[in-house]
Amino acid sequence: MQVFIAKEKESEKRVAAVPDTVRRLVRLGLSVAVETNAGVGSAIPDAAFEEAGATIVGPDAISQADVVLRVQSPPKETIAQLKKGALHISFLNPFSDSSPMADFASASVSAVSLEMMPRTTLAQKMDALSSQASIAGYAAVLMGADASPKILPMMMTPAGTIQPAKYFVIGVGVAGLQAIATAKRLGARVEAFDTRPVVAEQVQSLGAKFVQIDLGEMGQTEQGYAKELTPEQLELQRQGMAKVCSDSDVVITTAKLFGRPAPLLLTKDMLKGMAPGSVIVDLAASPTGGNVEGSKPGETVITEEGVQIIGCDTIENHSAQDASLMFASNLVNFIEHFWDEEAKTIKLDREDEIIAGCLMTHEGAIVHEKFANA
Ligand code: NAD
């Protein structure tokens, strides 16, 4: 079986394999082809892949591959090049754009969407959303710190005492927890809020303060995701957070709702209450709107009051090598988990909970229950 590691588009620095995962694939008996310069954005030269047992190939070699690994959804013309019956594993963003699914189905390619990986203990090792969210939470703090005119830790010097910076993390999922841990390690005073009350304990165990806002009934779905708030609850939340925001040097927003647009949490009015020089890092920024009014993905917007809003796009690119390492491990964990040693192939058992959760297309059709009849 031939595995092809694709070079991503120019703006994506991550790559879906690292030398260690190439070795693991080769050990399984797969032959690995890596597209020329696929690892450049992550500072992994072609020679490192070759040393690990891969062959370096041109882009057209994708048409011979049985398995294609990549980070982002491929362009339409690349899908058309794929071999019938091939397996394609990547993020696909199925809630924002369903067209790749239709293209995979008509090319008779089995496409796995990593966003749809079930949040179960068994699937944790293959959960790329989580591994990349950890990197994103860490990187958000560094980006916020870099843009802020203030240092994070308390400093007592003969020149005077500097108070620790105040960081406020909104949304305490995987990214939020990592942001809290990173800001604490660097010496900031950290507060956090999430609509899932169960996370209060986790926030406190990291040494941060959980902001209490009474929103009435809240909670989470079976998969552990937040439930959507009513407009009245959202308004109450904004009121409850306004004072904390105005006291903060850096606010990091990570609040997302699975399969739906992110909630708008910081309005222009709230931003007016923040001090000049303060920074907001919006990890949920997207073309359909993020957590912060006026944030733009991939751009830094400065308000009239001098508040910087950093709209994150693929923030994982900030630490691309380690992001690639975790992403690539998730993919090989998936392949190893479903590897049939006797048949030397990946077994796509559609009765399996993980496969049923993340397999979008198979044998010429869209098969995922959420999208099949959409
Ligand atoms: P996410 O990226 O979907 O959302 C980030 C956070 O935003 C969540 O904590 C969510 O509760 C919060 N949020 C949503 N609306 C909000 C609002 N109005 N105000 C403030 N916060 C808001 O979440 P995630 O990081 O993917 O994690 C979701 C859940 O899944 C968590 O409970 C996490 O622990 C769990 N999880 C489980 C596994 C597993 O068991 N394998 C793996 C990863 C995550």
UniProtKB/TrEMBL annotation:
BP GO annotations: NADPH regeneration
Domain Alanine dehydrogenase/pyridine nucleotide transhydrogenase NAD(H)-binding: 145-311
Keyword Translocase: yes
Catalyzed reactions per annotation: NAD(+) + NADPH + H(+)(in) = NADH + NADP(+) + H(+)(out)
Biological function: The transhydrogenation between NADH and NADP is coupled to respiration and ATP hydrolysis and functions as a proton pump across the membrane.
UniProt domain Alanine dehydrogenase/pyridine nucleotide transhydrogenase N-terminal: residue ranges: 4-136
Family note: Belongs to the AlaDH/PNT family.
Molecular function per GO: NADP binding; oxidoreductase activity; proton-translocating NAD(P)+ transhydrogenase activity
GO cellular component: plasma membrane
EC number(s) stated in the UniProt entry for this protein: 7.1.1.1
SUPFAM superfamilies (UniProt xref): Formate/glycerate dehydrogenase catalytic domain-like, NAD(P)-binding Rossmann-fold domains
Protein name: proton-translocating NAD(P)(+) transhydrogenase
Taxonomic lineage of the native organism: Bacteria, Pseudomonadati, Verrucomicrobiota, Verrucomicrobiia, Verrucomicrobiales
